Every structure is written in C-alpha cells, then in structure tokens.
Amino acid sequence: MNIKLKCVDCEKEYEALKVRYTCTCGGTLDVIHDIESLKKMDLKALFDARWGSREKPYNSGVWRYKELIYPVENEFIISKPEGNTNLYDAGKAGKFAGLKNFLLKHEGENPTCSFKDRGMTCGITAARKMGAKIVACASTGNTSASMAAYAAVSGMVGVIFIPEGKIAFGKLTQALAYGGKTLQIKGDFDDAMALVQEVCDKLNIYLLNSINPFRIEGQKAIVFEILQQLDWEAPDWFILPGGNLGNNTALSKGLMELCELGIITKIPRIAVIQASGANPLYKMWVNKTPYERVRNAETIATAIKIGNPVSWRKSYRGVEWSNGIVEEVTDQEIMDAKAWVDGAGIGAEPASCATVAGAKKLVEKGVMDPESKVVGILTGHLLKDPDATVNYHKSALGDREIISNFANAPIQIEPTLDAVKEHISSLLS
Ligand code: F0G
C-alpha cells in the first residue's frame, strides 16, 4: 500500500500496516499519501465518473475518493454505504446568520445520523485489515452509535466508554440497540478518552477514536464531496463545530491534499466554532497561549463537551494554514441558532448549530462578509437529542439560564372546533 504514517511533531515515519495511533514522542500521526504518483492520475475525472455509481464500494460518498482516503483492497471494506448527503440552501437560517450565500452540508443524513460514519467506515476497514477482533472508543455519543453499527456489520465486538448520564438519548439508544458493549464511566468524556487509550494499549483492542489516523482519512470525504457538489469550485469559508477536533483536522488535511494535487487552487478559510464552556482551542487562538486543557467542560451541546481534545495540534495547523479563525458561542446562541436551523426545515442537533451561531457572530464582527460564499457543516441529526429541543420549545431550560427566544410550544386545548378556531384564527386570515 502506497501510504505511510508520519508524526506531526517530530516527523518520524512508520509503516501503515501495523497498529499505531501516536508516535513514540507522543505526537499524533498523519496518513501520508504518495501525492507524486497520484498527480499522474486524473482523479477529478475518476471521481466524477463514480458520481451516482451503484457499484460497491464506490456508491459510498467516502470510497468514491478511495485513492485519497485509504487505498486498501476492496474485500476489506466495510461500508453501509455512507455520505452522499445533501448540501442545502440555508434558507431562513441563512437570513438569521446574515449571509446571502450560505449552504449547509447535512452530515446528519449519514446511516447512523452523524458525520462520524465517514471516519468509521475507514477506521473499521483498517481494523479488519489489521486483523482486529475487538474495537473500542470513548464517546460523547455519536462515535459510539456509529462504531456500534459498524462493529455489528463487521462481526467485530464494539466496546464503548461513555461519560455516565451525559450523552443524548438518541445516541445512547443507538449504541445499546446495535449491540455495543456499553461501559458508563464515572467522569466526563476526557476521563473516558484517557481510559480507552490505556485499555487499547494494554488489552490489544483496536482504538476507533479520531486519534486513529484512519478515522481522519475517512472524515476528509466530507470536503471532497462538498467540492464535487460545487463542481470543484471552492467556497470562501468552511465553518464547523469543534469538540475533539478531528473533523476540522480532516477538513484542512483534505483541502491541503487537493491543493497539492492542483484539483483546487483557492484555499477557503476555515472557521472552527467551540462552545464557550468547552473552548481550549479558542483560548489558545485568541490569547496566543500554549495549549491548555479546560477542566470540567460544560455545554448543552453534549457532543462537544470536551476539555482536552486529542487532535488540537493538527486542528490548529489547519486553521493557521487556511488563514482561518476559531470562535466561541454560548449555549444561548447555540439554542437560538438551532431554532432557526430547525425552523428552516433542515434541523440538527445542538452541537451542529454552533456552526450557524458562529457564522452569525463572525458576520456581526465583520470577519465574514455577508456576500461571501460559506459552507457550514451540520454534524448530527435533529433527533439525536430530543430532550434539548423539546425543553427549549417548552421554555424549560431555565436551569441552564437559556431563554427560549424562538419557542414553538405545544398548546393544550379542548377537543372542540371553537377551541381550534381560537388558536389558529390568525393563520386563517
Ligand atoms: N458535532 C457532533 C454532532 C459531534 O458528535 C461531534 C463530536 C462534533 C460535532 C465535534 O467533532 O470531535 O471532530 O471536533 N463527537 C464525538 C463523539 C466526540 O464522541 O461522538 P470533533
């Protein structure tokens, strides 16, 4: 296979066929592709020829780009198939953000309803290629839902570490239903992440968090697919939420490779949006200080409730490379933006809506031009976290000091025509 692993810190190289997630120096690893050989192929034509294909594995919106993802033999690939998600006009959510040309890539339309499936198909395929029987991850919910499903398809056992009582109901439902061995940890995601790394090292279990470099490779397909949907014309901005910081790492790595290959010539700017209660990358960025974890991270957007993200270095590298920016948003801003994303008929879970809250803030600050072409990534489905949504509309988030500015509460009425008329008369006029 024409790929190798390289340390982001000391640049030490490793072969890609042996299990390894970090360098001996502790640094995270990149998968390095043989760009010179790839330059000899007309990849754009190849990817365009596979568009809409019914042939496995190229019917997947990840494996369509196999040469730039993981050039593995097709018989190892485990795909559901993922990707091929819609790129929507943001509609009312665009007006709310103050952007005229705002598109939303809905990664909640993946098989397990989050963007994690793109990295997971690649990670579980690497697990099979390396002969793994048991896979594991720590998760705020979506990674565990995805891993449980892919483990079930592959016949491997999936062991899940989740912070006790802190993951959204839709995600826990999926992990249990798909048969994941689910271990609830007393502590938060950061504790679970530290434990799963130790467990995988000591017990010879294959780790499927985004510290696994193959997860990042699969995740790159989001940006490849968006650009293909835009006829390979790069937008001015990409904007997305940041938690463990794998997704924006993948986005920038994918863009770097497309630039090196000459498939795109313009570098779009990347805006990473963190919740203000879980914002280590933001603090580093604005204060120009060394990385420091945030203790006791807290946000209603439980998916990004992470104080010690594993991919912070690769993430920072990508933001700097793209002349990008890191911004933070409050839970109030997230939930208000969510009301507009949902009300636009698109819908997404809270963490995803940090994207739209962040866009609004960057427009208001004059960083993002209202005329610029912006692609936002919605990372998870509306139904992943029904509690947050219903409680917002019922004005029941007072304990978090969140005001339901755009509530659409259910109304209790008597079962009579008059009662109905009273409540919908304004709609009839
Ligand atoms: N949005 C959603 C819906 C997520 O589930 C996550 C991460 C993110 C955004 C942040 O992406 O970590 O790549 O920066 N969820 C992980 C999980 C951590 O365990 O499901 P990131």
Task: Describe this structure as you would to a colleague.
With 429 residues, this protein is an alpha/beta fold. Helix content is 40%, strand content 15%. The chain has 17 helices and 13 strands. The strands form three sheets. A six-stranded mixed sheet has the order 4-5-13-10-11-12, with helices on both faces. α11 links the parallel β10 and β11 (269-275). The model has no long low-confidence stretch (mean pLDDT 97). The structure holds ligand F0G.
The end-to-end distance, rounded to whole angstroms, is: 67 Å
* Bound ligands, each once: ligand F0G
CA gyration radius, whole angstroms: 21 Å
Instruction: Report the major sheet.
Output: 6 strands, mixed
Q: What's the average pLDDT?
A: 97
Helix content: 40-55%
Tell how many strands the DSSP assignment holds: 13
Question: Which spans of ≥5 residues are poorly predicted at pLDDT below 50?
Answer: none
Instruction: Determine the structural class based on helices, strands and strand pairing.
Output: alpha/beta
Strand fraction equals 5-15%
